[in-house]
Amino acid sequence: MRKTGFSLIEVLVAIMLVGIAIVSLVGANHVFTQANGAGAELSTAEFLAEQIRELTATLPLFDPGSATWTTFGPEEATLAGYDDVDDFDGASFCPPIAAADRTTLDNLAAYRQDIVVQNVSQSNFDQVVADRGSSFVRVTVSVSLNGRRISSAIWIRARY
Predict the structure, then answer these.
(1) Which residues contact 19 (CB under 8 A, 6 or more apart)?
(2) Where are the domains of the chain?
(3) Mapped to the 3 state alphabet, what secondary structure does the chain carry?
(4) pTM of this prediction?
(5) Disulfide check for 49: which of 83, 108, 114, 153 has CB 3.0–4.6 Å away?
(6) Once rounded to an integer, what is the mean pLDDT over residues 88-99?
(7) Are 128 and 120 in contact (CB under 8 A)?
(8) For residue 104, what are the β-bridge partners?
(9) Sorting pLDDT into bands at 50, 70 and 90, what band is 25?
């Protein structure tokens, strides 16, 4: 007489296969969650770098009303007084600032925008020259989250 049904070994093998599948799915979910978080951080960092680019896009390179640079760097300590691109040299904003109205983005307080403005050679934008040494500047914005650098952006501005 033949008995039908599953043997104990067949049941154990099935349970083991289901267990391996569940562990794999949980592991994949963890990796996908980390990748999604990193993408969100990078997207936010790019947004914050773009805020500085937009803020400085319409500003002159040096002090309005003067024919040449008089001071490289900020003339005033307040963000409202930043009226030209060179004022942003050495600036660091935490919480970061928005381009539209220069207000702080308090909901992104863990992020920091660090800005460096350098004069560069007219024939080689990789070569830094003395402050007030050319009509071209390189603006570098680095964005970090809790002290860990996430992204940076570099662009060249010419005197116009």
Answers:
(1) none
(2) 8-158
(3) CCCCCCCHHHHHHHHHHHHHHHHHHHHHHHHHHHHHHHHHHHHHHHHHHHHHHHHHHCCCCCCCCCCCCCCCCCCCCCHHHCCCHHHHCCCEECCCECCCCCCECHHHCCEEEEEEEEEECCCCCCCECCCCCCCEEEEEEEEEECCEEEEEEEEEEECC
(4) 0.77
(5) 153
(6) 93
(7) yes
(8) 97
(9) very high
Please provide residue 92's backbone torsions phi and psi, each rounded to the nearest 5 degrees. -140, 125
Given a cut of 70, is residue 139 above it in pLDDT? yes
- What's the confidence (pLDDT) of residue 13? 92
Q: CB neighbours of 88 closer than 8 A, spacing ≥ 6?
A: 52, 56, 74, 82, 115, 117, 139
Which structure tokens are listed for 34? 């980390």
Non-local (6+) Cβ contacts of 86 within 8 A are 61, 62, 63, 69, 71, 72, 73, 117, 137
What span, in angstroms and rounded, lies between the C-alpha atoms of 70 and 12? 81
Mean pLDDT over 88-105 rounds to 92
Distance separating alpha carbons of residues 80 and 78, to the nearest angstrom: 5
Q: Give the pLDDT confidence of 50-64 residue by residue, as tens digits.
A: 999 999 998 888 877
